[in-house]
Structures are given as C-alpha cells and as structure tokens.
C-alpha cells in the first residue's frame, strides 16, 4: 500500500511562504521581529541545546506481529511480550505490523490531511482552537506560547468509544459545515479502527506486565480519546526550528502513522534517534498516563519532530485516553516493597487540565503534575 505517491512528497508551490504568511497574520508586530541572519521569526528559533540533529542514528525498533500475538499461539505471545517489555522499559517506543487496519482507510485519512491543510487560512480557522482547549485547528500554537513555537499546523478532535454517538462525524459537520461530512465519516472510521487496535495493544501490554490480557483492555474499553492531524510545512532554516519540541505525551498511548518523510526522533541513552517511517506499520509509544498505570515500569519517552527545507511531512496521531471517570491507579500486582507507589491516583481530565493551563508538556510532566496534585490537596 502506498499512502503517498512520490509527487505528493514534495512541497506544494510556495508552501513555505504560505505558512510564513499565515504566521504573520497571527503574530503581533511581526514586521518588527528581529530576523537575525535567518529567514524565520525569532519565536520559531530554539535554544542551542535544543536545536535539531538533522542526521541522527536510526532507532532499532523490532516490529511486533500483532496478528500472531492475538492468535493465542504460546510461542508468538511469549515473543511479542518479550519484545514489548524490553522496548517499553528502555525507551517506550515500538512498532506493530499485521495490525488489521484497512490500508485504503489509512490512505484516505492521509489524503484528507492534504485537503484540509491546503485550504485558505480563513477556512481552517473556522475550526480555530481556543486557548485552554485541546481540540480544534492550531497553527504553531501562537497565543498559547510566546517562544520556541513549533513549525507545524494541527487539527485535533475528540473521539468517544460510545457506540451510541458519532463524535467525530458530528464535529466536522457542526464546526466546518455539511460539506465536510465526508471528512467526518473517514476520520470516524479511522478513530474506531485506532480504538480497536489500541485495545489489542493493551492486551499485549497487560500480558507483558504480568497482569493478564483483560486488565488494561477493560480499563480502556470506554475510552474518550483524541485524534490529531499533523502538518509540517518546509522550513528555510530546519537547523534552527522544530516541528514539535521535546516532550512526553501526557496521554496513555499514542498510535502514529507517518507518511514516508522522516522527522520523528526519540531520545535514547542521551542521544536523539530517528524512527524511520514504515508504511505497513504503526509507531506506538507509551504516554505519561500509562506510565502511571504501570507504576513507572514502562517509560513515557522524550520525543520530538524535526522539519526540512523541501518536503511537507504529515502524520496521523491517535491519543488513547481513559474515560473521564476512571481512576488512574496501578494494579496491585505492580506494587511491592521493591517497587512502591510512584504516583498519586488521578483522573485523565485533571492531567489534561494541568498540561493545557499550567504546564508545557516535557519529560518532567508527570512528576510536576504529582507535585501540583499534592499541593492542591494540602491547601
């Protein structure tokens, strides 16, 4: 399956200029910004110690055959559990293949990313994300942050596993209009596929942690998750900017499908590594919420996205989140004298509020959130 033909990998004419013009409409007093010796505003330039490495080593991530794991073959289960246990204790990233998601659906979802982000800014802003909210259209998160802006555009929307509602389809129709119903239908189906895939992955994580297939699957069956479309335009100074800054995902699990353009990087043993796109695989990474559920046994790993000066990069990210009523607490099997409780109980909405209103997500989010919770309970 080819998600993108070769001609789609290259930037549309003047894509960089178009993105810059959109940012100029949103940045205050842009004409007076010091451009230094670069072609991008200073708000997009990252500090020297965070500047990107454009030629990183490749991260060796052995693919996990999900179909074989779900076949109940003891050898396949043991092999998959061993691979995922090693990856999640070391860095929190792994790949799944034979995942059962329709290739045509993936291709449709990528095609609509192009259609949405190539629209005029005024059209995209009909879905404008409001400050303090996590859904909607955002270009570089101007308004939320004033420095170290990410060189990207995103569209995020809520998904509910409740079969009685069609959250995604309704979102596109209500926000963008009836002409966008087909967008809603495609991404509704895509989110349903990601939700089902995530439950299979939760069986794998449960087995690898020794708590059985059902424990985490049941915890996430009524998930209230987030889907995000990422669009990274070319940048004239890719050595100075970042598409997404270094962070750990505060959610439980991220299932990412990349196009064929490299850009995702993971910090392992103090060195940034590239996660090479594979069109038949999904990249899966542990988030802070699942790190808390595993009592710190599985890592929420620091990662980022770089940009380039020639090619548009796109990705589809599904962020699995528990139902808002679920208490995030590890199973008793993961707590003992050698591995005592590391984080307090919490609900996903409280962590989401913390990252949207009080803290810019990084590798210390969960620790900072734990301290914030403790301060709230003692005041």
From TrEMBL:
Protein name, as recorded: Fe2OG dioxygenase domain-containing protein
Residue ranges of every copy of the Fe2OG dioxygenase domain listed in the record: 222-322
GO biological process, one term: gibberellin biosynthetic process
Gene3D superfamilies named among the record's database cross-references: B-lactam Antibiotic, Isopenicillin N Synthase, Chain
Listed SUPFAM superfamilies: Clavaminate synthase-like
Entry's Gene Ontology molecular function annotations: gibberellin 20-oxidase activity; metal ion binding
Source organism of this protein record: Pisum sativum
Domain of life, per lineage: Eukaryota
Keyword line: Iron, Metal-binding, Oxidoreductase
Pathway note: Plant hormone biosynthesis; gibberellin biosynthesis; Hormone biosynthesis
Assigned protein family: Belongs to the iron/ascorbate-dependent oxidoreductase family. GA20OX subfamily.
